[in-house]
Amino acid sequence: MKNKILKVHQPNQKISNDRRQFLKLSGLAMVGTGLLFACDNDDDNNPTMPGVFDLGKGDLGVLNYAYALEQLEADFYTKVVNGSYWASASSIEKQVLQDLYYHEVNHRDFFSAAISAAVGSNTAAKLPTLEFNYGSLNFGSRDQVLATAKVLEDTGVAAYNGAGKLITDPGYLVIAGKIVSVEARHASAIRTLINPGSADFAGDDVVDSITGLDRALDPSDILAAVGDTGFITTKFTAMNLP
Amino acid sequence: MNIIKFLDEFTNESMVEKKSSRRDIFGTFGSLSKKAALAAIPFGLGSTKTFASTTAVAADPVGALQLALTLEYLEDEFYDLALQSGVITDANVEKVYMQISKHEQAHVDFLFAGLTQAGVTPVSKPEFDFTAGGLFDPFNTSNPDAYAQLLALAQAFEDTGVRAYKGQAGNLQGSPFLTAGLQIHSVEARHASEIRRIRGLKGWITGKERGAGMPSQTQAVYDGEENVMQGGLDVTTLGTGPAFSINASTEAYDETLSGDDAVAIASLFIVA
Fold it and tell me: How high is the ipTM of this complex?
């Protein structure tokens, strides 16, 4: 089933380039375009669309954003460790993927608890539990599982790196830092599983050869790319984040 | 291992004499928060030559970047010497060291240029001793332990780098350098994971384990990693099952290292 993608704000050329880079990196079969994605931070009127959850602005918006990404990762690895590739994988690969599953579930439930604490009685401000659909992605295929894991981990790194500047509370910034380096450790391990004995763990496709800097992308770039995968079927918007 | 001398140079030359330059960094970039501007007020650095250990690294963007540059100098020289030593005979490991070396050189150049453009004199490159006063002999092909030491030191440096950058995030918050700092931080974490996995460990840190084969002198790199309190929440209580075990809960979050602790670790390898 294909859902119509709605764009309230057309991404500019730079974003489109970043997005193409992401999609090129992914090498994934796109299963649809389910995510309603919108971006408009040109004013302070807290724009929303009726009946559609918006991540919100400021620290809460970033927490909800991180929660969405961690929900996706946790769900993906839950399916991985229940899939046939994992069941017959080498002991090393089994352990790596099981650890990633544990870590992402922990991250997801941390954000759930942190957001609940932050919003108090205003529970409508917390991103709901999302639903996912991986389409034709074959969890029995080592290549497909690892390629998707690579995209998700690299995306997590670029997302947290780009979100740091949006965070006001120093405590949240440190926690984001504690998580992003673990995502980067994951990305490195997955990349080496895919291409052992190479420089891919911190490859030139993600770490700039001249500056030595990893990627940092805005929520709009990340969510556009994630939306294009169609993995997240629950609609939400990010109209108050850049 | 003259830490006082190192700190003296680190702070007095770069922080105090360049006080006016310190202000330039804010003028140049002009978008710093009030918090960062307030944090930039020197806290008694000029009043003492030898330095209280509690104020070794200035809690502001310049202090953070100078510390980062010092650690990058250390890593950069380490990988250069490692690649020149002939100790690495595994072509795949050499490939890894070359990629890391390229990044550490880039980080040195990036931080040096960033500080310079901001009107601050970058801290000068210390003189390093990777034997740590005779504890190790990592570049000596006739030392049968040299290869193991090369890998162990790389692990210690990368895991330290991850923690040290994370520890400076608060000092970079509100400054134009925060994002770049994060972008270097995640690269160090990619490096750390790879080196750890080459050594047969997990890419992530369990509890405060330094891991098999790591010299006891590196324990300071891992102390504190056993923390399970995140944002006031004990993450082992968030749910049930192995995802919330002590092991998974410590692996899932890397911890910070204070500037002073990072300097203390680096100073093991600094002669002057």
Answer: 0.86
